[in-house]
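A.,

Following up on our hallway conversation. C-alpha cells first:
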C-alpha cells in the first residue's frame, strides 16, 4: 500500500516541482519588463542585462531566461532550485568569510553594495533586486545620457571591461529583439545606441569631464581679502604704484614726441662745480 501510494504521489510531486520551476523561470523577466515601464528605461534593456547576469538556457523560451536564485562567489556561479536554498548558500559563504558575492536576477554584489538591501532575503527577492539594479542603471544614464553606454557600464566603468560586457549584452539584446521577452505583455524592442564607437566616444568625454572637475577641485583656492586688511592695503599700494608708473611712462612718451631726443626733466642729471 505504501509503495503504491508512493508510486502514485511521485508523478504529482515531479509535476509540482516542474510547475514551480516554470513559474520561477519568468520571475526575473517579468519584473524587468515591469521596471522598464515604471522607470521609463529603454524597452528590453534591463531584461538584456538580467539575461547576461543570471541567464540560462531554456527549451521553452528561445530568448533564454534569467534565474532569480543565482548566487556567484569566487568566480563560480550556481543556480539554486529555490529562494530558500539560495539564501542558505549565501549565509554559508558569509560564515566562511567570503564577502564578494553576487546575488539574484541582476547579480547585485553584496560587498560593493552593502546598503542595497536590509537582508539576504530582500536581496534575493526579484522585485527588490531588480528595483535596485534599475536605480543603478538610471544613475549611469544620468551620467552618460545614453542607455547603451549606461548598460555597458553596469558591470564595470573600465573601458575594456565595458566593451567586453557589451558583446554579451548585444547577444542577449538580439535574442530579445528576435523572440521578445516571454514575460512581457508588450514587446517593443529597438536595437540602437550600442555601437563600440559610441561607447568609446562617450566614455572618453565622461573621463575628460571628470578629470577637468578633479583638476578644478584640487587647484589652490584664492584667499579672500577683506577690506582694510594688510593684504588689501598692500594691493592698493601696488595698484597706485602701477598706475603712477604708467602715467610717468606716458608723460615721457609725450615729451619725446614733442621735444625729440633732447633730455627731458625726469632724466636730467646735475653736478656741482
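Then the amino acids I'd put at each of the 273 positions:
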Amino acid at each position: 500500500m505504501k509503495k503504491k501510494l508512493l508510486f502514485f504521489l511521485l508523478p504529482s510531486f515531479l509535476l509540482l516541482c516542474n510547475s514551480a520551476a516554470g513559474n520561477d523561470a519568468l520571475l526575473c523577466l517579468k519584473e524587468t519588463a515591469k521596471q522598464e515601464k515604471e522607470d521609463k528605461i529603454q524597452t528590453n534593456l534591463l531584461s538584456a542585462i538580467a539575461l547576461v547576469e543570471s541567464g540560462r538556457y531554456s527549451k521553452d523560451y528561445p530568448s533564454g531566461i534569467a534565474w532569480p536564485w543565482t548566487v556567484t562567489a569566487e568566480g563560480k556561479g550556481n543556480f539554486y532550485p529555490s529562494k530558500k536554498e539560495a539564501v542558505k548558500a549565501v549565509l554559508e559563504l558569509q560564515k566562511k568569510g567570503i564577502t564578494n558575492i553576487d546575488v539574484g536576477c541582476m547579480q547585485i554584489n553584496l560587498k560593493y553594495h552593502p546598503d542595497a538591501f536590509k537582508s539576504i532575503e530582500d536581496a534575493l527577492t526579484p522585485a527588490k533586486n531588480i528595483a535596485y539594479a534599475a536605480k543603478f542603471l538610471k544613475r549611469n544614464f544620468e551620467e552618460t545620457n545614453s542607455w547603451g553606454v549606461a548598460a555597458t557600464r553596469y558591470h564595470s566603468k573600465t573601458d575594456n571591461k565595458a566593451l567586453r560586457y557589451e558583446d554579451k549584452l548585444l547577444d542577449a539584446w538580439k535574442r530579445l529583439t528576435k523572440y521578445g521577452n516571454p514575460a512581457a505583455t508588450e514587446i517593443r524592442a529597438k536595437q540602437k545606441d550600442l555601437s563600440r564607437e559610441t561607447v568609446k566616444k562617450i566614455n572618453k568625454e565622461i573621463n575628460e569631464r571628470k578629470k577637468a572637475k578633479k583638476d578644478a577641485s584640487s587647484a589652490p583656492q584664492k584667499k579672500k581679502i577683506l577690506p582694510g586688511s594688510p593684504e588689501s592695503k598692500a594691493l592698493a599700494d601696488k595698484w597706485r604704484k602701477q598706475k603712477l608708473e604708467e602715467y610717468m611712462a606716458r608723460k615721457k612718451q609725450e615729451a619725446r614726441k614733442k621735444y625729440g631726443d633732447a633730455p627731458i626733466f625726469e632724466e636730467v642729471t646735475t653736478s656741482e662745480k
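The mean pLDDT is 80. Curious whether your intuition agrees with the design.

B.
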